[in-house]
Write a structure and sequence with these properties.
This protein is mostly beta strands and 278 residues long. Helices cover 3% and strands 39% of the residues. The protein contains one helix and 20 strands. The longest helix has 7 residues. The chain is globular, with a radius of gyration of 19 Å.
């Protein structure tokens, strides 16, 4: 089999997910990589009935929270890093997010949803989520399935999923703002001219104070998973950041029964970090 010779040591290393391995069942488990990861090792073990562990990488997302009802014309809080840094010490604060405000979630590639790790639960009200995609001229309902809706959205951990639409078109934030008759706020200029596949998430009612999300991980558009048998490892470099090959974590599940997946992140000559974009 091919061998990769690394021109650097693996540097700092940390486990991602649970000690002794992420618990895998026939329901997908999502594990974020540590911010700054450049190399990963994944080792499946402890198979019970399972024949393979199936996996896919989570596409890196750009996550912008509108701080007002002005949409892209108002201030946009960039939660890209805190939502994908692999740390429970940082989180996306959704408390006080009012009905009709937009959470803009985009990627360099199409994606079929996002997995949400809820830390502080949405405690009251009947907030329901509607997610939209951009078809080149307007926002269209994705008819999403909200797995976080335990009597209300963002109540429990879960995946928000949809069927990837064939009419989904990439666009820039600047063009999206112009189509709404708005001028993109200066807070969105970092991503203003980069084409992405954008979604807009809106809730029917306000989100209660104290609602926080430890991670928002993109779900790969394909279910043609790669597969590993017991104790057969995969290792390789990754790009932990925005781009067509950018990834933020891993989705893993079994074909049957249970298993564990040890996920080791290496920073090589760099270092791990957490926190908001500076």
């Amino acid at each position: 089999m091919p061998t990769e010779i690394l021109g650097a040591n693996l540097g700092h290393q940390r486990i991602a997910g649970a000690s002794k391995g992420v618990a895998c069942t026939t329901t997908a488990a999502f594990t974020p990589f540590h911010q700054g990861t450049e190399h990963i090792d994944i080792v499946p073990r402890n198979f019970s009935t399972a024949v393979v562990v199936k996996y896919a990488f989570c596409p890196y997302l750009i996550i912008l929270k509108a701080d007002s009802a002005d949409g892209l014309g108002g201030h946009l809080e960039d939660n890209t890093q805190v939502a994908q840094d692999g740390s429970t010490a940082t989180s996306v604060d959704m408390g006080g997010f009012t009905a009709g405000r937009g959470l803009y979630v985009g990627s360099a590639v199409p994606f079929r949803g996002a997995h949400i790790d809820v830390d502080g639960s949405n405690g009251s009200g009947g907030a329901a989520l509607t997610a939209y995609y951009w078809n080149g001229s307007s926002w269209v309902d994705l008819s999403d399935t909200d797995g976080t809706n335990g009597t209300r959205s963002l109540r429990v951990d879960g995946a928000i999923t949809w069927t990837v639409p064939s009419a989904w078109q990439s666009s820039t934030l600047k063009k999206l703002a112009a189509a709404a008759g708005e001028t993109l706020d200066s807070s969105g200029q970092k991503w203003s001219d980069i084409n992405m596949y954008w979604t807009k998430w809106e809730w029917s009612a306000g989100i209660t104070a104290g609602t926080t999300l430890d991670h928002i991980l993109g779900i790969n558009e394909s279910t043609a998973y790669a597969e590993l048998t017991d104790s057969v490892a995969y290792e390789g470099r990754i790009h932990n950041g925005f781009g067509a090959n950018g990834v933020a974590g891993i989705e893993a599940l079994t074909n049957a029964g249970t298993a564990n997946l040890i996920v080791t992140c290496s920073a090589m000559n760099g270092y791990f970090s957490t926190g908001k974009v500076l």
